Amino acid sequence: MASESELLQSVPTSLWIGGPVEATGGGTFPVHNPATGEVLTRVADATPEDAVRALDAAAAVQADWAATPSRERGEILRTVFDRITARAEEFALLMTLEMGKALPESRNEVRYGAEFFRWFAEEAVRVHGRYLHAPSGTGRIVVHKQPVGPCLAITPWNFPLAMGTRKIGPALAAGCTMIVKPASETPLTMLLLAQLCSEAGLPDGVLSVITTSRSGAVTGPLLTDPRLRKLTFTGSTEVGKKLIEASAHGLLRTSMELGGNAPFVVFDDADVDAAVQGAMLAKLRNGGEACTAANRFHVQNGVLEEFTTKFAEAMASSVSIGPGAEAGTTLGPLINEDQLNTVAELVDDAVAAGAQVRLGGKAPGGPGWFYPATILTDVPPHARILTEEVFGPVAPIVGFDTEEQGLAAANDTEYGLVSYVYTRDLDRALRIAEGLESGMVGVNRGVISDPAAPFGGVKASGFGREGGIEGIEEYLSTKYIALS
Ligand code: NAP
């Protein structure tokens, strides 16, 4: 296993357009280590012209890639899965360095992220159409699925590998080419992945990576270029809305995986110990910087104190905060100073409104952007932390009396990505799961992500699904051929 400095020296830092290429004008921007604030390295800073070069490359090979037998496409994807898995430690350390998360979290992400290549390697050969006789007897109907065409993927920093592979896997499996614009905070993982895809036999131009510090200016020309056919975005609701507007010009197909504000609902009849275990995962996975992170805990008053006490004990005894690459760390730093300030502000606002701090609640100070695991109780309904995405290791807990009140509180949000519910009553579990306004529900589970399941939201959490058999549909268009 390479040392940190050897690893950083081996990772590509140029753009990836049919191989490594410098940005026009030779500009670069820094990538920071959130555990220290220091510059890890610099990467190429793409210009709008570079983005168009990537689209030129994608458009040039689109027809050949679409015509490549699906078995062959699938086998390349499977080779990528094998190679990521073989180099899992490199990917994990790289993500920890640029994003901050603890190494065990990065290892989990490598397993999860790689799995999208294996899953879609298997789905590539299962794109089916239909053949039927028109009920009117007037002819035959053939339904044929074709790749949408060149796609642009814009991804966030919180899962530098998996947020890309969830898009690249199905796009390539469907026969689409793709340009990825990773978050400027975490460009290195995606550049390493592009190099590895090339080594695995992916033809030049099928996958390009453009890194930039000027996202809007660089991706803008692509969204209005008639050769681009799809935009797939994961990130904040605010940016997602802007991109939908920009995509209207070319009537692009769009998939939007946006922000979340997940409720975690615990009923009196729940197994409280299991709920605490689930809460630890739902809150602290990825240091709370996950769109699926439980943002607010609604606990029925009969078990409110027991749940709160056990949750605080579990956090106090098992969370070890520190640089993500250090042995024993379970909670790394937040991504940057802005994020640290946002989390601190939301906690301070809740406390000023009357919330009690049961655990944590104060940033330890630099270097690095650390915030401790925190539990707030007696959080008043108007506290911002109940309505805004906290994206940090902070758990606000509020009580409720009746099932109706619990469900209403859970649904009282503009978002609708995921919800969690803990109860031993199967009827209640199904009733609540059906009543929750979210694209996904975890019943007696604190982690729900699975490459074989359709991931996605409703309301302000967006539309489109990633993973499952639905994931590849996002990259296919349907053609109807009428026969006599
Ligand atoms: P963000 O600020 O929306 O950025 C996401 C991506 O969009 C980054 O690559 C960013 O580039 C780019 N971007 C920003 N402004 C742009 C513009 N005007 N035009 C084109 N691209 C632009 O979100 P984030 O802070 O990175 O990520 C956190 C958010 O992602 C949270 O809200 C979280 O819930 C959401 N998320 C959702 C899911 C899901 O599946 N639903 C999964 C993970 C995260 P720069 O880095 O250069 O700004």
TrEMBL record:
Domain Aldehyde dehydrogenase as annotated: residue spans: 24-481
Transmembrane segments: none
Record: active site: E257
Record carries keyword Cell cycle: no
Domain of life of the source: Bacteria
EC annotation from Swiss-Prot or TrEMBL: 1.2.1.-
MF annotations from Gene Ontology: oxidoreductase activity
Entry keywords, A to Z: Oxidoreductase
Top-level EC class as recorded in UniProt: oxidoreductase
Protein family according to the UniProt entry: Belongs to the aldehyde dehydrogenase family.
Identification of the protein by name: NAD-dependent succinate-semialdehyde dehydrogenase
Source organism: Nocardia aurea
Lineage, top ranks: Bacteria, Bacillati, Actinomycetota, Actinomycetes, Mycobacteriales
